[in-house]
Amino acid sequence: MKLSDRIQAMQASPVRKLVPYATKAKKAGKKVYHLNIGQPDIQTPSVFMEAINAYDTEVIKYSFSQGEPILIDAICDYFRRDDIHFEPEDILITNGGSEAITFAAIAICNPGDELLVPEPFYTNYNGFTGEVNVNIVPITTKAEDGFHLPSEKEIEALITPKTKGILFSNPGNPTGTILRSDEMEMIARIAIKHHLFIISDEVYRGMAFDGLEAQSMASIKGIEDHLIITESVSKRYSACGARIGAICSHNKDLMKNILKLGQARLCVATLEQIGAAALYRLPDSYTKEIRDEYQARRDIVFDALQQIPGVLVQKPTGAFYMVVKLPVDDAEKFIIWMLEHFDVNGETIMLSPAEGFYATKGLGKDEARIAYVLNKDDMQKAMKILQAGLLAYNNQ
């Protein structure tokens, strides 16, 4: 029996597809520093479990398809801190930010339609769109430009009758780039002019360094009917396994129809929503503490990379990733070699090959994404292992 063309066309995740090599290395007795996946080591705030433990019920019932009111209200209050006003009917809770993006793609695109996406982009955008037969058209950004957007004219040249929207993350995964206000205003102009939706993936908002601010697209006036924001507790609150996200929009018709998708999958897990509500009510001081920690880790990694011959890297200003150009022909082969054949005192590292973060064939082949999600001491060790590994690999 033949499987569908759709499932066979989907790519394996570059973040996870090399996991068997890491598993084999661990079985051989090596310690592997995982810099390949955005799984923070920072403790999930205790309020998450405290709220769940305090939840008084004898039956774990279905939640509302839209989501638990206590969580929806907490998200409204979270945005209100930045003078962004959503009403409860503007929000639907999802199984992580992933489902929010999939729901958005289903709601605004027909099979075969297109979304413009700045590349390199979060590789799972391929999966979210591919599973509903939506095509990604890349807006290529370059390291020498800090992975900022090209001109308005260049972006408009990519628009076709099948283009339905622009999807991007800000701060960016995998680049760590924060869009400037003029870039966000340019996106708004393009969306209004060409009647496009904007899907703004804001799961890393709050993780901005060097005194910068990752502005929400919802702060821009006049695009209310165009704008879809996707949210998540995964990164900001180190709660990836909770799988709690949200889709937020002032477009009443859109949200009314997206609720149908929520009803079709019944609901999001009840207890995790109760815990997530407590996370969204944490004070801004929590976000500052986390931001300072990631900035310190970024500085360690960036400074170390600057000392490695042949490595090219732009200093990221947000999230907890950076894209690194390595002095190798094929980053994936190098990453596998590190896991199979190299260690320093029984320790090695795992990165993500960056080729899978591009839609344009041939780009990113000599690049890797580093997630600085380990403590500062471990990040220092990992960078020393990377330096030694590159030297050994190129001296074979």
Give keywords.
single chain; 396 residues; alpha/beta; Aspartate Aminotransferase, domain 1; Aspartate Aminotransferase, domain 2; seven-stranded mixed β-sheet; four-stranded antiparallel β-sheet; 13 strands; 16% strand; globular; pyridoxal phosphate
Explain what this protein looks like in three dimensions.
The chain is of the alpha/beta class and 396 residues long. The protein folds into two domains: 5-43 and 285-394, Alpha-Beta Complex (Aspartate Aminotransferase, domain 1), CATH 3.90.1150; 47-283, Type I PLP-dependent aspartate aminotransferase-like (Major domain) (Aspartate Aminotransferase, domain 2). 38% of the residues lie in helices and 16% in strands. It has helices at residues 5-9, 19-27, 47-53, 69-80, 96-108, 124-130, 152-156, 181-194, 252-264, 270-280, 284-306, 331-341, 376-394, and strands spanning 31-34, 91-95, 114-119, 135-140, 163-169, 197-201, 227-232, 244-248, 312-313, 321-325, 347-350, 352-353, 367-371. The strands form three sheets. The chain has a seven-stranded mixed beta sheet with strand order 2-8-7-6-5-3-4, with helices on both faces. Helix 3 (47-53) crosses helix 10. The longest helix has 23 residues, at 284-306. It is globular and about 60 Å long. The model has no long low-confidence stretch (mean pLDDT 97). Its EC number is 2.6.1.-. GO terms for molecular function: pyridoxal phosphate binding; transaminase activity. Residues 31-382 form the Aminotransferase class I/classII large domain. It holds the Pfam family Aminotran_1_2.
